[in-house]
Amino acid sequence: MNQCRGFDEYCSLVGDAKQKEIFAALKKQQGIIEQKNLNQYKTAAGFQKKGRISDLEKAIAIYESIAGFKDSAEQALACQRRIVELQSAAAERHLAAERAKKKAAKIFKITLASAIAVALVVTLMVTFIIPLIRYSYANSLINKGEYSKAGQIYTDLGGFFASEQRIAMVD
Predict the structure, then answer these.
(1) Cα gap 167→2, rounded to integer Å
(2) Eight-class DSSP state of 131
(3) pTM for this prediction
(4) Are 83 and 53 in contact (CB under 8 A)?
(5) Tens of pLDDT along the chain (171 residues)?
(6) For residue 71, which phi and psi values (nearest 5 degrees)?
């Protein structure tokens, strides 16, 4: 019986040592996993800090791969919110650019129409109104008896209105 009792103690000691060995191996493996998760967490945080959509998407994937580690789930949600913010801002910039483009096109059209109108008025002034005023002035000079001045104006007017017939009357 003494022999059995010693054997039981031996088995108990050996079993405790084996359990300690298994426990130490598990603890070591857990430490390795913990370090791996920490490295991935830091990598994800680095991507998150860059703040670009593509980097935020990488951070989300890493955070999701280490779910349950620290606050990885909250950080993944923060990245998703930031992506939505960035996309909204990009959409707003795009809309603002479109509005600016439309405004520029409208200003161009107005400017072009104004330039055409000014060109028409100038053309009308040069080709019709000023010669008509000069023609009327020459007629008033004839009424005053200043035929030589009127003749010079009719000559300058060339073929405008009845200038050539008036030149013959003055000569």
Answers:
(1) 158
(2) H
(3) 0.58
(4) yes
(5) 445 555 556 556 666 777 778 878 888 888 889 999 999 999 999 999 999 999 999 999 999 999 999 999 999 999 999 999 999 999 999 999 999 999 999 999 999 999 999 999 999 999 899 999 999 999 999 999 999 999 999 999 888 888 778 777 777
(6) -110, 35
Question: What's the residue count for the chain?
Answer: 171
**Tokens encoding 9:** 């103690």
Residue 13 structure tokens: 């000691």
Question: What Å distances lie between residue 51 and 43, 62, 73, 94, CA to CA?
Answer: 13, 15, 18, 19
- Helix intervals (H) in the chain: 2-50, 53-65, 72-124, 130-144, 147-157, 163-170
| Residue 37 Cα to chain centre, angstroms | 38
Q: Encoding tokens for residue 15?
A: 């079993």
